[in-house]
Amino acid sequence: MSKTFLFDALREATDEEMQRDSSVFVLGEDVGHYGGSYKVTKDLHVKYGDIRVLDTPIAENSFMGMAIGAAMTGLRPIVEGMNMSFLLLAFNQISNNAGMLRYTSGGNFKIPLVIRGPGGVGRQLGAEHSQRLEAYFQAIPGLKIVACSTPYNAKGLLKSAIRDDNPVILFEHVLLYNLQDDIPDKDYFIPLDKAEVVREGKDVTIVTYSRMRHHVMEAVDLLIQDGFNPEVIDLISLKPIDIQTITLSLQKTHRLLIVEECMKTGGIAAEIIAQINDDYFDLLDSPIIRLSSKDIPTPYNGNLEKATIIYPKQIVDSVRKLLS
C-alpha cells in the first residue's frame, strides 16, 4: 500500500493499461506535452509518444467522433474532457453514436471508449465550468456512468472502464484531485455497476456519490456523537443504479436520505426516488428526503456559490428530521 493522490491514481491506471495493451491511447486538449489540466497524463507522451497521447484542437465534437471511430476499429480510446462542461459540445456524438452504435449495428461494432475528466462545483469557477453533467447523460441508452470519490476507487474504476467493451463516462470531481488515500501495490479492479457500503448502520440510509461522500462522512461524525447510527452508501455507478444495495439497506433502516451535488430537477436522486416508489415503497417508514443543488447556474460569488450546494449541517438536520 502507498499513499497516492487521486490524480496520480488515475495516471497510474492509464499508464498500466497503456503498457499492457497497445490499443489503449489518450486524446484530448493539452493531454500531451502539458500533461493534462490536472496532470492526470503528465509525462505519458514521453513514454508512449505523441500518437498514443494525442493533443487535439479545441474541437470537442470532432475529436469525440474520431475517438468513437477508433473504438469501432478495435482501439481503446480514453478521451479527457479538460472540463466536463465542454463535452456538451460533443453531446451529439456521445448520444447518437457512442451510446447507440453497438445496438444499431446489430452488435457488429463494440465501442470500448472511456470519457473522463473534471466536473462539479469547484471554487469560483463560474457557471460554465461548474456543471454537473451526470443528469444530462443519464437518459442516454447504451452508456455506463460512474463517479469516483477516492483515489482507491478512481484507479479501480478507470482500469475497469478501459477494459470494458462499452462506452463509459467517468466523472471526477475538480476538488478531489489532491485527495490522498492508500492504494494497493497490486493490480485491482472495481465493478462498474456496484455501489459501496461505506459505513454500516441501522437508523437511516444515506445515499451519495462523488464529493458529497466526504460531506456525508463529516455529517456522520457529528451524528454518531448524538447517538445516531446511519448507514452510508456511495453509489459509484450512476448508470445503471445499483438499486439492490440501496434496498438491502432499506430493509434494515426503512428511511432514506439522498445527498447529491446534481441539480434537483431530473437529477440522480429523482431517478432513485422513482425506482424506490415504483417497486419498494413498502420498505419506507417515512418520506424520502433529497438534498440537491439549487436549480440555478452556479454563481461566481463565493458565498452565493456555497449557498447552492449541500454542506454537512443540512445533512445532520435532515437525519434528525427523519428520525424525530
**Judging by the overall fold, what is the CATH architecture of the largest domain?**
3-Layer(aba) Sandwich
Counted by DSSP, the helix tally is 12
Our measurement of the CA-to-CA distance between the termini, rounded to an integer number of angstroms, reads 42 Å
Q: In which range does the helix fraction lie?
A: 25-40%
Mean pLDDT comes to: 96
CATH topology of the largest domain: Rossmann fold
**How do the strands of the widest beta sheet line up side by side?**
3-2-4-5-7-6-12
Q: Rough shape? A: globular
**Residue windows where pLDDT falls under 50 for at least 5 positions:** none
> What's the Cα radius of gyration?
20 Å
CATH class of the largest domain: Alpha Beta
The run of helices and strands is EHEHEHEHHEHEHEEEEHEEHEHEHH
Number of discrete domains: 2
CATH superfamily of the largest domain: Thiamin diphosphate (ThDP)-binding fold, Pyr/PP domains
| Secondary-structure-derived class | alpha/beta
β-sheet strand percentage: 15-25%
Number of strands: 14
Largest sheet: 7 strands, mixed
